[in-house]
Design a protein that fits this description.
This protein is mainly alpha-helical. It is 55% helix and 7% strand. The longest helix is centred in the last third of the chain and has 28 residues, at 114-141.
């Protein structure tokens, strides 16, 4: 009996790490002096730079920087509207889901406007589900065309790329198992 090697699901820690890695554009509002020479991001007042989301969160919480292109609930809902009207994936700002998680946590802590919390939750849920359904469709199509896959990957946010790669591997292995295809090493080919 052949075994299909399925990837384990992502742990919560890994998921959080992936969400904190996409770069976010910030505007530095206070120069930070005394940084180590090897520190890769200059933090001079007035600069706009791309930094990892974890660093952007830290800098904004310290009052050193502000988000250059901040999302808000209305623009988040607009992203969903655009996603719903097209059959292909739209381009999202790389840190969209980082922003979503940050807003969700803020609402949980502050126990603010319940209507805004509900709108945020529903919009986030619908956006995630719609994008995943499109990515799944592309994952099946991509078994036949590298061009399709290249266009898709360009439109995925960094955390979505990891999920897509796992889905793609599972689908490819399942198709290979059903078709009896073998890879060069004699094992099932991971399409």
């Amino acid at each position: 009996m052949q075994k299909v090697g399925l990837l384990p699901t992502l742990s919560a820690e890994t998921s959080n790490l992936l969400i904190s890695l996409p770069e976010v554009r910030v505007k530095v509002i206070k120069t930070v002096e005394g940084l180590p020479e090897e520190f890769p991001w200059p933090l001079k007042k007035g600069m706009e730079i791309d930094v990892p989301a974890w660093l952007a969160d830290t800098l904004t919480s310290l009052g050193v920087a502000e988000y250059a292109d901040p999302l808000d609930l209305k623009s988040f809902e607009t992203l969903l509207s655009k996603e719903l009207v097209t059959s292909r994936l739209t381009r999202l700002p790389p840190a969209t889901f980082t922003w979503f998680l940050r807003e969700r946590k803020k609402i949980e802590v502050e126990a603010g406007d319940p209507l805004a919390a509900r709108r945020l939750y529903i919009t986030g849920r619908d956006l995630i589900k719609k994008r995943l359904s499109k990515a799944l469709r592309y994952a099946v199509l991509a078994t036949e065309s590298e061009v399709v896959e290249k266009r898709l990957v360009e439109r995925l946010t960094p955390p979505e790329r990891v999920v897509y790669a796992q889905i793609r591997l599972i689908i490819g292995r399942w198709i290979s198992l059903l078709l009896g295809e073998k890879g060069e090493d004699g094992g099932d080919r991971g399409v």
